[in-house]
Amino acid sequence: MATEDAVREALATVNDPEIHRPITELGMVKSVDIGADGVVAVTVYLTVSGCPMRSTIENNVRDAVARVEGVTDVQVTLDVMSDEQRKELATALRGGTAEREVPFAKPGSLTRVYAVASGKGGVGKSSVTVNLAAAMAADGLKVGVVDADIYGHSVPRMLGADGKPTQVEDMIMPPSANGVKVISIGMFTPGNAPVVWRGPMLHRALQQF
After folding, report:
1. For the chain, which terminus, N or C, has the lower number of CB atoms within 10 Å?
2. Is the pTM of this model over 0.85?
3. Is the pLDDT of residue 168 over 60?
């Protein structure tokens, strides 16, 4: 009969497709239950509910556990990490260091942050952002745009920003266009190619911006 230790050892061979570390190390294994008939039920945490790699993770878990001696069937259930669990994972990925302080979040800061967002694509988020930024810059304000759309980064093209960021020591200096400083993942990918990131990878990219 299969043992829980053997199953967890098999799960340790399954890497997260993007973070490239074992799901056991990342705290993604919620539970392992083994029935008397050899049926193993594994519940795995996803970092986000809309994880694009959910099928890959599910299949890899099923294949790894199925190879354990004594296992007759594998049932995989997917759950989603809580906000607290995601914070703990992000801290672990940073090597245990505290999250970087955001200067404009401090009391008394004159910086104002406007978020333009929608759960649906193609509704004009980028157009509104670019026009709002350009209008404020024309009024003499210092404006910066963070293009947080990792999957469809069109802001640099709409602003006419074709330059690349400049690195000075550990600081990234964003290019400017029409009086607006802008940073986008599109400036770091060849040919403006889309990226398939999620959870911690996505979070860390935006943090570095």
Report:
1. N
2. no
3. no
